[in-house]
Each structure stands twice: as C-alpha cells, then as structure tokens.
Design a protein that fits this description.
This protein is an alpha+beta fold. Helices cover 24% and strands 22% of the residues. It contains 19 helices and 31 strands. An 8-stranded parallel beta sheet has the order 14-13-12-7-2-1-16-15. Strands 17-18-19-24-21-22 form a 6-stranded antiparallel beta sheet. The N and C termini lie far apart (61 Å).
Length: 709
C-alpha cells in the first residue's frame, strides 16, 4: 500500500502553501495523483511489523467484535451505486411509494440501491471499513412537495424495504455478504415521526392542500393553549387513511398534533419536524409499538446495530424504555455486541451526555468532536479547544457508557462535508493544501478516542456546495449539474465520473490509517490523555495508553503551515516511530523533543511500559450541583503523590442508594478526576454518601468513604 507519509511530503513539496503562484493550481491534481502512486512504504511497513495485538481474529469475526474496534462508513444508498435499474421508480403496488426518480435533480431519487452497495463492498473493505451505516431504507412516501424521499426519512411502512432500494431479500443478501467479509451493517431508524400524512382542518383544505399558499407551516400550539381548548383538528385525506404500516400508526390519536416545531422549548419535542407527523412518544402504546417494530426488524434482518434519528426531539422517557429493551432483544437474538447510537444535533457534551446517562442510550454521535476537530484542523482555531473537549468526557462516564463508545465524525449529510468547510475557511488555499487538511482532520478522527465514521465521498475529495441536498452527491457517474461543477479535492475527476478510485490520495491515506488503527489496540481503545496544545493554531499532542499493555502511544498533530517542535515529558527512554518517517526518539533528562512537519502528524510508541502510579491518595474533594447539567452532582478530586507525566489510575466513584447499597457511578482514568452522579439516585442527595477507590492498575488500591455534607 502506498505510504501516506510520502504523499504528504510530495504534496507539501508541490505547494509550500505560502505565496503559491496561481498557475500552479492547474497542475495540483496531477501532482496529487503522482503522489498517490509513490512507492514508499515505510510507515505501512512500520505498522505491520510492530503490532501490539493481532487483528486477524477480531476483523474476521464480525459478530463478537467490540464496536470500539470498528471503522464506520456512512452512506446514502440512493447516491452510491445503481445495481438494479429496474427498481428506479419504486413500488409497483403502493402508489405513495412510487416515482420520484430524476437523477438530474439533487432532491430526487438517483437510482442507487442495495444491490449496488453490495457490488461495492470490496471497495469499502480494501479501504479498511468494518461497519456500514445506511440512511433509512424502509418504505417511504416517494414524493412530498418539491422533493422525494431518496434519503429515507419519510417512512410510511416500518416492515419492509423501500422498493427504490430493492427487496427485503436484497437487504438480507447485502447483510449476509457483508458479514461473510467481516463487515457489520447498521440501520438508521426513526421513532420521532412518520411521513407527512396527517392534516389539520385549521391549516388544510379537504384534499390536504394548504389553505395559505404563501406559508406552509401550521403555527405551533403550546400546551397551555391546548389546556385552554385551543387545539388543531387533525384529519387524514380519504385516499391516505390506511397507508401506514403497522396499522395503528394511521390513527391521529397517537400523534401530538400541535403544529410545526419552532425548534426550541416544548415545540422541539412535540412539534412536527418540518411538517412530518410527530408521534406522542409519551404514550405507552407508542413506546411499546416502536419497541415491537424494531424488535421485529432485528429478528427478521439481524443488523448489527441502530443509529437513531432526531433523538433530542423525542421524550427522554421514551429512550429510557426503548434502548434497554432493544439491546436485550438483540442479545436474545444472538447479537452480543449490538450497538445503538443516537443523533443529538448539539455540540455541548453536558447536553449530549444526557441521552447516554439519563436516557440509557449506549452512545451518541459526537457533534462536540465534529465542531472542535474541524475548528482546529479545517480552520485555524486553537488546539486548546480539543483539550477542553476531551476533559469533558467525564460527562459520559456512568455505569453503562463512556466516551470511547461515541461515534466521531467530521462532516455529514445534514451539515455538509469537511471539503465544504475547507473551501469556506481557506478560499485562497491551493487544492493541495485543502487535500492535506482533509487528510489531517480525518487522521485526528481515526486516532483520538471514539469510533471513526467516514462520510461517503469524503475519501474521494467531495466538497459539496452546502448542507443537506448540496452535500449528497453521487459516487456513481452523476448527471446533476450542481454536483458536476464542483472541484473535487485531490483529483482531476468530477462527480460526472465514476468515483470509486482506489488510487485517490485521501482513499489511500484512510486505508493506511485503518491498517495502523487495526494493528494497535491502544489507538482504538486506549485511554486518551491530553499532553499539549498551543494557544494559537499549531500543535495538539495526546497519548493513548491501553489499560492492559500500559505502553504509551504519543501522537502530535500540527495544524500550522510551518514545521513545529514540541518538548514533552517522557515515559520511556526511547520511542519507536509508528507513523511519520522519523527516526526513533531518545529521552534526554526525562524529556523528548518531537518535530512535526507542516499540516502533518506523527505517532510514536514508547519502548517500555508506563511506570505505575505508586502512593496516589485522595487529598481533598469538592461536591456541588453541576452548573451545566443540574440533574447531576459534580464531584471533583484532588490527588496527591502523582509524579508521572501519565498517571495510570482508575478512580472509581460509587454512591449509596435509597436501599443503603453502593452502586457504580463512574470510572475516570484521566485528570482532572471527576464523577457526575445523578442526584436523584443518591440517598439524601447532597447530604448523601459516596465511596472512592483509587486503583493504580498494578494491584494497589485505596478506598475512602465520604459523607458529602
């Protein structure tokens, strides 16, 4: 495999990023392509010859593989590959699910389907992908307003595949084939809403059309209005009374019927999501109904997990019942590592974590990571933002979830691509520079904590013109003009070409990252320690340490266009280079000096294990209601006796519950040592009792019971 580090050097040599002549831009694509054909293999060989754990078994055994070992690929099947043109028009039986095919229009079906996705599985496997997450594929309303349901979020039938994508048998065939190749398949599911079928007499005519031709919204009615008798009168047009499956979904009584969301307050939960019929997810019938729907999906198709749409627009009580029931059913069906992660479109870990702690969801998509990673590496903000982000991981730590289960990403189908952000933030930069910044941002996603998600097309340098429809280009040859005029990064191609190019420099880089990721357990699951961050755009350094191996992997990323040097405390006398074409490092007076080229990164592995933290004890603590998440008690510990640059410790916090029993609250492996405990669970709340255990991961522990008052 071509060495990405050689690619980096060639790109940097071709365009020094400073005072580059305009005429050079015409040659950048060929420069990048030549770089992709480089024969240097030093970094790949280094990774292959120094594996901290054998990856062969876990990557063959999809069923028993921990999700933290996976690399995800997020794809819209409609925009990927057309394996069966006969299904392009959708259903031949259900009129509501037929039509909407126009590949010249960015908002219509383009013909991609599951047979096409199956044909391209080797392309994904060779890139190192181990898990495929598809946008919703259940039967949709084909047309609504001026666009189609190509994206899958307008479901009318929760029991069968949308015919535009193939048949239920096609889905089973895709899953079986992926599993035979060691890859998992994840479904994108919806519980918040169904397709827009229900109408209101106050807003709509009898045929369902809007009375106000200038404003298609129905103004939201708040709960106090409903209590005063100010309500909408819901109805379903006669020809659509039985279009939803299961049948109970056709009854308006199971919906909130309060008009369109205003995206804040109660309307964010009870309002129609851009007109889509918003379910009353407080109703026990709705809760059990959706548990049954998705239990049946698991039983019938055996997917490996769910991504859940619009999580923050659903009542929290729904998730408290839904998530545990679905996880248990998957286990009962013989899927031991079924994973569920939700979409909570917010960047604050204190808010995001509510759904993994209070909401009992195993994980969420890490929008906090997306915003901060792009700010530092796809823009010019300070790497200190990343220090704060990872320090906030304590919000996710509880008895059944942690930050390393989060799905990390740098762009998606709603907000747009990293290529778009680069075009906006660096309008004068060369294509070579933007290609390199895309690769560098992806690298942070691969090697920092969390589970990486590649957005389809980013590996081919797609940029898009914006968000939503403008970020959903075709991988197969496109006939959409607004896509085909985009300048893709790292290639002379456009989206009018077939874009499954396995020599594209970003594809090659991600394939190499996957090989390194799979070869070193610490880079997948290791404790993430912040090590250094510049106050301005420049170096961010961090370490990953596997709790069993106890060997430091030291990574330094340089977001600047000039070479940087950073000096850090050493945990070993020498470090072997894993990535970056550098000589081994030698410690000098307990320090190591790391040099990082412009817009590049390095990975080193320490030559010996980190010394155990001997004699660490609890010096003091503080406990108060968390200012950012008021349902939680924030307990912060100050430890004494810490001398290592990387103190390997597990600080476990337990609380005494209403029955006088100690229950696990959180485990924390990184300073600052903290625990976030739901106050309602603690007997006597702020006057209750906790127990703290400090474990140096080498057999030495100390325990202390604390009365909070």
């Amino acid at each position: 495999m071509t060495s990405f580090n050689k690619i980096t050097q060639t790109i940097l040599a071709a365009a020094t990023f400073i005072n580059i002549a305009a005429c050079q831009d015409t040659n950048q694509n060929s420069t990048t392509q030549n770089a992709a054909n480089s024969t240097s293999k030093s970094a790949t060989q280094s990774a292959a010859t120094d594996k901290s754990t054998s990856s062969a078994d876990i990557y063959a055994d999809y069923l028993n593989r921990d999700v933290r070992d996976d690399i995800f690929y997020f794809v819209l099947p409609d925009r990927f590959a057309n394996g069966d043109p006969s299904n392009d028009q959708g259903s031949e039986v259900h009129a509501i699910s037929r039509g909407g095919f126009d590949p010249t229009h960015k908002g219509y079906f383009h013909g991609g389907d599951l047979p096409g996705l199956k044909q391209k599985l080797p392309y994904l496997k060779e890139m190192g992908i181990t898990a495929i997450w598809m946008t919703p594929i259940l039967r949709n309303r084909a047309m609504q307003g001026s666009s189609s349901g190509y994206h899958g979020y307008w479901i009318v039938d929760f029991t069968q595949l949308d015919p535009h994508f193939g048949s239920n048998d096609d889905l089973k065939d895709l899953i079986d084939t992926a599993h035979s190749m060691g890859m998992k398949v994840f479904f994108d599911i919806i519980t918040n809403h169904t397709a827009d079928i229900i109408r209101y007499e106050e807003c709509h005519n009898e045929d369902g059309s809007h009375k106000d031709k200038d404003n298609y919204n129905c103004k939201y009615k708040y709960m106090e209005q409903l209590a005063a008798g100010d309500t909408y009168t819901p109805f379903v047009p006669p020809e659509q009374k039985e279009v939803k499956v299961p049948a109970w979904l056709n009854d308006p009584k199971y919906y909130n019927n309060q008009g369109d969301s205003e995206w804040h307050g109660e309307s964010a939960i009870n309002g129609d999501f851009a007109g889509l019929d918003d379910l009353n997810t407080r109703d026990p019938k709705v809760v059990q109904g959706f548990i049954d729907i998705y239990k049946d999906i698991i039983t019938k198709f055996k997917p490996d997990g769910f991504r859940i749409d619009t999580v923050k627009h659903v009542d929290l009580s729904f998730w408290q019942a839904f998530s545990p029931a679905i996880m248990q059913h998957a286990k009962d069906q013989g899927i031991p590592n079924f994973h569920v992660f939700g979409e909570v479109y917010d960047g604050d870990p204190a808010f995001l974590s509510r759904f993994t702690t209070l909401g009992k969801m195993p994980a969420i998509l890490d929008f906090g990571f997306q915003g901060n990673a792009d700010a530092v590496f796809a823009n010019t903000e300070s790497p200190t933002k990343l220090v704060k982000l990872f320090d906030d991981d304590d919000y996710y730590n509880d008895a059944d979830s942690a930050a390393d289960l989060l799905l990390t990403f740098i762009g998606n189908h709603d907000m747009g691509r990293v290529g778009l952000f680069l075009n906006k933030n660096f309008p004068q930069a060369s294509e070579a520079e933007k290609t390199q910044r895309s690769i560098l941002t992806h690298a942070l996603m691969y090697f920092s904590r969390g589970i990486p998600v590649v957005y389809y097309g980013d590996e081919q340098g797609f940029t898009g013109d914006g968000n939503d429809q403008d970020a959903r280009e075709d991988m197969m040859p496109s006939v959409t003009d607004s896509y085909n005029d985009n300048n893709l990064l790292g290639t002379d191609k456009t989206t009018a070409d077939d874009n499954f190019d396995q020599t594209h420099p970003i594809y090659l880089a991600l394939a190499e990252f996957a090989d390194i990721y799979k070869s070193h357990k610490a880079l997948r699951r290791g404790i993430h320690f912040n090590r250094y961050a510049e106050q301005k755009s420049g170096i961010y350094a961090f370490s990953r340490v596997d709790k069993d191996e106890k060997v430091e992997y030291l990574l330094a990323f340089n977001a600047a266009k000039t070479a940087k040097t950073v000096e850090l405390a050493a945990t070993a006398n020498s470090y072997q280079n894993i990535y970056g074409d550098h000589s081994p490092l030698k410690a000098n007076n307990g320090k190591i000096e790391i040099q990082v080229a412009p817009l590049s990164f390095v990975i080193y592995k320490a030559g010996s294990a980190v010394e155990s933290a001997e004699g660490a004890t609890l010096a003091s603590f503080t406990a108060q209601t968390d200012s950012r998440s008021p349902e939680f008690l924030d307990v912060q510990y100050q430890l004494s006796g810490l001398t290592s640059a990387l103190p390997l410790l597990k600080v476990t916090t337990e609380y005494k519950d209403q029955n006088g029993q100690f229950q696990l609250a959180a485990e924390d492996f990184t300073p600052p040592y903290r625990a976030k405990i739901e106050e309602a669970l603690i007997a006597d709340g702020l006057q209750g009792t906790i127990r703290v255990t400090i474990d140096n991961l080498n057999g030495d522990t100390s325990e202390q019971v604390i009365n909070l008052d």
